Amino acid sequence: MLVILCSLLLAGCAIATCDSSYDYSASIQCLVEPLDPQYGGGLVGNPNFDSGLDEWSVFGGGKVVVRKSKTAWLQLDKGKDIVSAFLEIPSGQSIIVGSVIAKSGCWSMLKGGFTVHQNMKAELYFTSKKTQVELWIDNVSLKPFTRIEWQQQQNKSIERVRKRKIRIHVTSKEGLKLPGANIVVNQIRPHFQLGCSTAATIINHKAYQDWFTPRFTTTTFNNEMKWYYAEVYPGKENYTVTDAMVSFFKKNRIAIRGHAILWAAGNVTQYWVKLLPPKEILNAAVRRTASVVSRYSGDVIAWDVMNENLHYSFYEDKIRPNATAMFYQIARALDPRTPLFLNEYNTLEFPLDMAVIPSQYVEKIREIRSFPGNERLKMQIGLQGHFWRKPNVSHIRATLDVLGALNTPIWLTELDTKRGPNQAAQLEEVMREAFAHPAVEGIIVWGDNNFKNLPAGDVVDKLINEWKTTNVTGVTDGDGVFEHKVFLGDYSVTYSHPLIPRPVTKIFSVRKEKGPLELRLPL
Fold first, then answer.
1. CA–CA distance from 164 to each of 160, 407, 488, 517 (Å)?
2. What is the C-alpha separation between 80 and 108, in angstroms, rounded?
3. Which residues of the chain have pLDDT under 50?
4. For residue 49, what pLDDT is reported?
5. Ranges assigned E (strand) in 265-409
6. What is the rounded distance in angstroms from the CA atom of residue 234 to the CA atom of residue 284?
7. What pLDDT was estimated at residue 278?
8. How many Cβ atoms are within 10 Å of 229's Cβ, its own excluded?
9. Which one of 149, 414, 429, 433 is the catalytic residue?
10. Is 414 a catalytic residue?
11. CB neighbours (10 Å) of residue 34?
């Protein structure tokens, strides 16, 4: 193993002397000439190796090549391999910072994050399992933020990406500006998709329905849309329960994620499928895809086409190496309007799982799109978010930055945190980080079907109420204008004035666009 390290002093900094802004950008391109280091290097001494190997050391069978350049990241002299950055603290513990697939001939950006709770001296090191390669590193940056600064960055991002100013103009029929008009604005439905998983028990459980429908705009069925639920025995499909659930949620205007068409894990595949020869497995999987997609096309807002196909490869192993790409193509042909998701676990939760680091996501999406006919495939990213350990929000943000560089929406699709005294606080921490990130468009909380709120449910309720604009009241100014910044969503505005006999109500939508929304309301 090749190891390259430098020594650091990890310490906070006074807000008055440190720039506390956060750079959400990342690059997923392997570049001939890399970009400048973020934050000018931050805490790292000799970040661009202008002073040779000062403050850096090398261990193992490889060697470091010092490259003087205006920019640089990570590069190997031959082949490709995962390179990881770790932080070793005085206790001897190693904390992973992040990982990237580094290649020869170009530079790859590794962006990661970690959290420490005290000032200390530490060593930052980079590792590769390949010892007979040259690992080139340059322009390393490390930027500290306090908890308060981190929260300020979240709030600033929310103001920028989740809100928009509205300007309501009230005029007479003749077009005269009317000052003194009374305005009341209420949100009908938020734009950001916040949902919860559900089970078949909701169909006939009034209390469960009454708990669910006022809170959430989106749902994912726990099992009821999966293949093993619909076709327990070969050739005997049963969509009775699924149909009833779809009907209920459509009636209540709650969007449904299609989870899942196929599942790449062999251990959750029906026994009868696994007993089939490869050609018959292909035929059965194609029939399954056609059956569920054609049945619910137009009823769902997303399809998890091949669930967890970075960890598992049942269909590649049984059918052909490009089986996943083929099934994405079939799904797109059957339902061309609905986004197709790549849905995986551990990318946010466990950065030591090298199968699902952001680079692996990027490569898998590129692989699927490289299949003939898939070049313009409408794909989105699902990050499950089953946090059985304490969430690392620094890592979460960096991961979202990297995947956000694909310029495709990201969802947290199955979010839950470990039960215990810290469950609610940790759930809130992750939800706030996701909601604040510009690339995230939805969160599905993975519930336990207990329709009576536990502390984690109280957190969800609190955030639902915090992330909406309601009961805004005011009066138009001398120019007949009332303005206010609101969360994106659908709204009603009620306005009244002495010149009209009764209040008037209008419906309007606030979408993510540049500049204020100019809403003109003639009497």
1. 8, 21, 7, 7
2. 11
3. 1-17, 55-72
4. 52
5. 302-307, 340-344, 379-383, 386-387
6. 9
7. 98
8. 16
9. 414
10. yes
11. 22
Both tokens assigned to 411: 């969802």
Task: For residue 7, give the H/E element and its range.
Answer: strand 2-10
231 among known catalytic residues: no
CA neighbor of 427 nearest in space, from 451, 397, 459, 400: 459
Please state the three-class secondary structure of 37-83 as a single string: CHHHHECCCCCCCCCCCCCEEEECCCECCCCCCCCCCEEECCCEEEE
- Specify the domain boundaries for CATH 3.20.20.80 within the chain: 187-336+354-386+396-413+431-453
The predicted pLDDT at position 187 comes to: 97
Sequence-distant (6+) residues with CB within 8 A of 433 are 154, 393, 396, 397, 400
Topology at the third CATH level for domain 162-186+470-522: Immunoglobulin-like (2.60.40)
CA distance 43 to 36: 15
pLDDT in tens, 230-259: 999 999 999 999 999 999 999 999 999 999
| 62-88 per-position pLDDT tens digit | 443 332 222 236 888 788 999 999 988
3-state class (DSSP) for residue 454: coil
Angle CA 312–318–319, to nearest 5: 110
Hey, what amino acid is at 68? K
Q: Which of 308, 428, 429, 433 is catalytic?
A: 308
> CATH 2.60.40.10: which residues of the chain?
162-186+470-522
Distance CA 103, CA 32 (A): 11
- The answer to whether the beta carbons of residues 262 and 289 sit under 8 Å apart is yes
- As a 3-state breakdown, the chain gives helix, strand, coil percent values, each rounded to 5, of 30, 30, 40
pLDDT of res. 67: 24
Give the homologous superfamily in CATH for domain 187-336+354-386+396-413+431-453. Answer: Glycosidases (3.20.20.80)
What the block records as the tokens of 398 is 């960096």
